[in-house]
Design a protein that fits this description.
Layout (H helix, E strand, L loop, with lengths): L3 H12 L5 H8 L3 H20 L3 H12 L16 H21 L8 H10 L6 H13 L16 E13 L2 E12 L4 E7 L4 H15 L1 E2 L2 E4 L6 E5 L4 E4 L1 H10 L2 E4 L9 H15 L4 E2 L2 H15 L4 H10 L1 E2 L9 E6 L5 E4 L2 E4 L8 E6 L3 E6 L2 E7 L7 E2 L6 H6 L8 H4 L3 H11 L3 H10 L12 H18 L5
Parallel strand pairs: 1-5, 1-9, 5-8, 13-17
Antiparallel strand pairs: 1-2, 2-3, 4-10, 6-7, 11-14, 12-13, 14-15, 15-16
Length: 479
């Protein structure tokens, strides 16, 4: 093998210095056959150079004439991926192609791992890396998707998407639903965690985003979410949107746009942005003492992610349509029967009401934040909105008559389990053996330090906090 200097030395001495091939070989101490090879290559390439019709072609031949010598490395084919094994591989690839033809776009794609498992099940001795290399060669041979880059004016477009996030809250595994809204013009990302992917969450998150932005984008782009697209008409060519979302978009003045089915690239900013946020925030940090700590962490982390985009975002905010309207109020009204536990069930969760209403029908209004319950037109209870299924929101004041009659019922009640930690701590420390004393405190007034009881500093603080909670209970009034 010779290097580029030796190659150009051969050409220079032969062409410009008119030396013989034998003399060149002696001077450079190389084989005469090597000299003969590069002289022949030079003459053949020189003819091509003179006949080249474009600057590009000329450049190629010039590089071939004077550039580094190139050697073709002969790599023996030692792959075991031949014969019957290769036939089965091609058979599986063909099944994958036929499925795509019959089903259209789908996410049931064949993978290298699946091919590897099939080959192993059929008794072939092959490594997964060998199968992966063959599969990658196959994918490289396919036509590549081409995307058309999009540009949007400031304030023109916001893209909406959901992602699942798994966390540990107080040692308990819990799944949240991450709403991400991306602004393609400024590359700014807005993200919050919610408890589900229902219509209520969809509406609440849009309202939260509009209030955060201080203005309204011209259009918001969504997947074909079930809370948004209620049904299809005219052979699935027309999408019928949820009435509440139509009201919301009309109220604020933005257009609803949805992607084509299985076409996430049509809102690529939020597809990529949502996955980035989830990995950036929760790949290492996923365990939190409380939900409040989790929410604070998300808000602070999103600010860090957007630190370098603030200037562009502020310019985009100036282009938004101003929002001078009061916060949109989404409300769902209904009727429910009060059961023997003095609770009414709304969307699979349970809310307490005054015990005098047992067996009666009550009206309720459910908003994005709370549930208000009425006896006719008279308000009788108000609770924070519960998420999920089978959860309870209770109020001590609703059970005064029953608890005074059955004080022992407090011990294992959902009332006590759902109470604030300060309340439960005080009960366990001083009233577990005498629940009547606990009820006197709840319905009577300030708690005093029990006589002959030794209280540590922590309990003293808890007692102080508990005393502050009592007015919240008693001020709600009695039935």
């Amino acid at each position: 093998m010779i290097n580029m200097i030796e190659k150009n030395g051969i050409i220079s001495m032969y062409i410009h210095e008119k030396k013989s091939k034998r003399e060149i070989a002696r001077i450079l101490d190389i084989s005469r056959n090597t000299v003969d090879k590069y002289v022949k290559d030079y003459k053949a390439c020189l003819i091509d150079l003179k006949e080249s019709g474009t600057t590009y072609e000329s450049r190629i031949y010039q590089e071939k004439l004077y550039g580094k010598p190139k050697y073709e490395r002969q790599v023996p084919n030692r792959s075991v991926f031949i014969g019957k094994m290769k036939d089965i591989f091609d058979e599986l690839i063909e099944k994958d192609r036929i499925r795509d033809e019959q089903l259209g776009p789908n996410k049931q794609k064949l993978t290298a791992a699946k091919i590897y498992r099939v080959l192993k099940e059929r008794g072939f001795q092959v490594s997964q890396s060998t199968v992966e290399r063959a599969f990658n060669r196959y994918k490289d041979s396919l036509p590549k998707d081409v995307f058309i880059r999009q540009e949007y004016d400031p304030g023109q477009r916001a893209e909406y998407d959901f992602h699942h996030v798994k966390t540990m809250i107080g040692g308990v595994k819990k799944t949240y639903h991450q709403v991400t809204i991306a602004m393609p013009n400024s590359d700014y990302l807005w993200a919050r965690l919610y408890h589900d992917e229902t219509r209520t969450t969809l509406i609440k998150s849009i309202i939260d985003f509009i209030e955060y932005s201080g203005g309204i984008f011209e259009e918001m782009v969504f997947d074909n979410l079930s809370p948004l697209v209620k049904r299809y008409a005219f052979q699935r060519k027309e999408k019928i949107y949820d009435e509440e979302l139509i009201k919301l978009s009309t109220y604020y003045g933005f257009s609803i746009m949805t992607c084509n089915a299985r076409s996430g690239w049509e809102k690529g900013s939020v597809e990529n942005g949502g996955k980035f946020v989830r990995k950036e925030l929760f790949s290492l940090e996923y365990s939190f003492d409380s939900e409040d700590e989790l929410m604070a962490y998300v808000e602070a982390s999103i600010e860090k992610i957007n630190k370098d985009k603030l200037e562009a975002y502020e310019l985009e905010r100036k282009a938004l349509k101003k929002n001078d309207l009061p916060r949109y109020v989404y409300a769902k009204e209904g009727l429910s029967i009060v059961n023997v536990y003095s609770m009414t069930t709304i969307d699979n969760n349970h809310y307490s009401v005054p015990e005098r209403l047992v067996g009666k029908a009550v009206n309720y209004v459910k908003t994005t934040d709370c549930v208000a319950i009425y006896d006719g037109s008279t308000p009788v209870a108000k609770h924070p909105l519960l998420f999920g299924k089978g959860n309870y929101s209770t109020d001590f004041k609703h059970y005064e008559k029953t608890l005074k009659k059955k004080p022992g019922a407090i011990q294992n009640s959902v009332l006590l389990k759902g109470a604030k930690s300060e309340v439960k701590r005080y009960y366990e420390a001083f009233c577990k053996e005498d629940p009547k004393k606990f009820l006197e405190h709840i319905y009577g007034g300030q708690i005093k330090k029990p006589k002959d009881e030794v209280m540590d500093e922590i309990l003293m603080r808890q007692l102080s906090v508990f005393n502050q909670l009592i007015p919240e209970v008693t001020s709600l009034g009695k039935d």
